[in-house]
Amino acid sequence: MSVETANAPKVAPRAPAPIDTRAASLRAIYIIWYRDILRYWRDRWRLVASLAQPLLFLVVFGSGLSSALGRGGLFGSRSGLTYVQFMYPGIIGMSILFTAIFGAMSIVWDREFGFLKEVLVAPIDRWAVAIGKALGGTTQAMIQGLILLVLAPFVGVKLSALTVLAIVPLAAVLAFGLSAFGVMLASMLQGFQVVMNFLMMPMFFLSGALFPLQGLPNWMTWLTRIDPASYGIDPLRRVVLSDSGLPKSVIDGLALTIGGHVLPIPLEVGIMLAFGVVLLGVAVVMFQRRD
Amino acid sequence: MTEAVIEAKGLVKKYGQLEAVRGIDLEVKQGEIFGFLGPNGAGKSTTISMLCTLLKPTAGSASVAGIDVVHDPARVRQRIGLVFQDPSLDDQLTGRENLEFHAFIYSVPAEQRRERINKMLELLQLTDRASSQVRTYSGGMKRRLEIARGMLHEPQILFLDEPTLGLDPQTRRNIWTHLNDLRARTGVTIFMTTHYMDEAEFCDRIAIIDKGQIVALGTPDQLKAMVGGDVVTMTSSRPEDALEEIQKVLGVVPTRDDGALRMEVPDGRKFVPRLVRELTVPVDTISLRRPSLDDVFLKLTGRAIREEEASDRERMRAMASRWMGRRR
Prior knowledge:
The complex is a heterodimer of chains A (about 290) and B (about 325).
Chain A: H1 21-42, H2 44-69, H3 83-104, H4 106-112, H5 115-120, H6 126-147, H7 161-188, H8 193-205, H9 218-226, H10 230-240, H11 248-254, E1 257-258, E2 261-262, H12 265-289
Antiparallel strand pairs in A: 1-2
Helix pairs in contact in A: 1-6, 2-3, 3-6, 3-7, 3-10, 6-7, 6-12, 7-10, 7-12, 10-12
Chain B: E1 4-15, E2 18-29, E3 33-37, H1 44-51, E4 59-64, E5 67-68, H2 73-79, E6 80-83, H3 95-105, H4 110-123, H5 139-151, E7 157-161, H6 169-186, E8 189-194, H7 197-200, E9 205-210, E10 213-218, H8 220-225, E11 230-235, H9 239-250, E12 255-257, E13 260-265, H10 268-278, E14 285-289, H11 293-301, H12 307-327
Parallel strand pairs in B: 3-8, 3-9, 6-7, 7-8
Antiparallel strand pairs in B: 1-2, 1-4, 4-5, 9-10, 11-13, 11-14, 12-13
Helix pairs in contact in B: 3-4, 4-5, 5-6
């Protein structure tokens, strides 16, 4: 063999130091999360565009429906709660729902454009990939939801600093649960279209974002209680509206109930968290099976 | 003393009934540039994927950097760098950010990250554009960035699957200059596949693979010596008659190649005058050349590797990326 390696400096190490796999996985989670945030931040138009939709809902849909609903019934002078006020936390929830699922499902894009291969062949644990992606989606969705809090004065919702502090973890839990859902979907499905039409829209409509989940037909009551987003949007609404001088009876009257009982907020948070953890677990298993 | 850093014994990959790789044995030595040459569908990518632990062999064994690819794929992956056939960069990130991402997931020590990234950017001449988003890069720059990325964790072996596919000839040459440079500076072993015959000339050793088997293995010169002598090609307005006459009068059996007649002769310079003198059919053109690897492949398989095989696929890939780029 005429290969001249004699004068070539040997940088290629014989035996690299063994890698601490736990530290490696933590680093991987961090950089996968960081990449998502970097891309999110860089894509300003997406940020602007994703604010347009909630505004459209609040201003056009909300105002229009308020007028149509008239003064009687649940909303109006009798309860002191306007439809737009009611809808506002729901729209925050909507923003979180869409951003979380789409954010986590960006794995599908990564697969399409080849970048996922770079991640999957790296000497890291697959669960780190799933967790990094879920956290990336969670962070984006939280920011997207919390930005909408600046609209509160325009829709007649008062927020104290303490309330805002209470909203942050609720938004985080909802964002996490749905991001985990998104990662799981991405680990099983190839495209967005199906998810959009058959999962996200129904989830959104049944979540209580647009109408109270009470006095519904029986079949629908069932579906709304199965919808995990319901357990994230309900506590969000109760906390967001807590400073606006509404009687407790009005707020409780809108709350999510099971068998006539109002669910305590910690229980709802627990359900959402459990949902997220279980689905993330499924996603990890799916990822580990892939080639 | 050079030792084998890649060893494969009886490597087989079956997909159901289809046998993509049918028993491959090879040894690659430390510091070599080893080329895996063959037409599309010959089993090149499948073999490289098995060596990189991306595919499990159906039978046989292989070790890379002294580690068994089946038993300990994770440790193999720490010691190898990969440049895939299809692009795998994040084109929304900058070149530097892509390298940073890689440094993290490959556990490059924190204090060395910046230094190694700068060094690799320098080596592959990407420093000027390191802060631009990858979507603004040319095809050649993207490839160079992928090579820089593959080298970032200082692998012992760099695997490249068709690294020059779809690039123009000048860019291809440029990539080759960089690969040679990298080998000289770091002593890295390079294992690559290609279906461009002219590129194989740059390798220290080549394995020619056809239908899932290695049909020849050696240095480019050794392989070319298999053809024996020179290659004479001629065209005639009456090729059938010419073929018959050459066989009868000159005792050489020409092969038909794209309308031309192709002959392998020991000494071309003496053969050409005889050809002109003895033939009664009209001769349009005659050319004489040293054998190329194309000739070797033709001799071994009875078929030529044609560029068209690639171009179809490249066109499809270009179309796909345009379309998806817009959709994004």
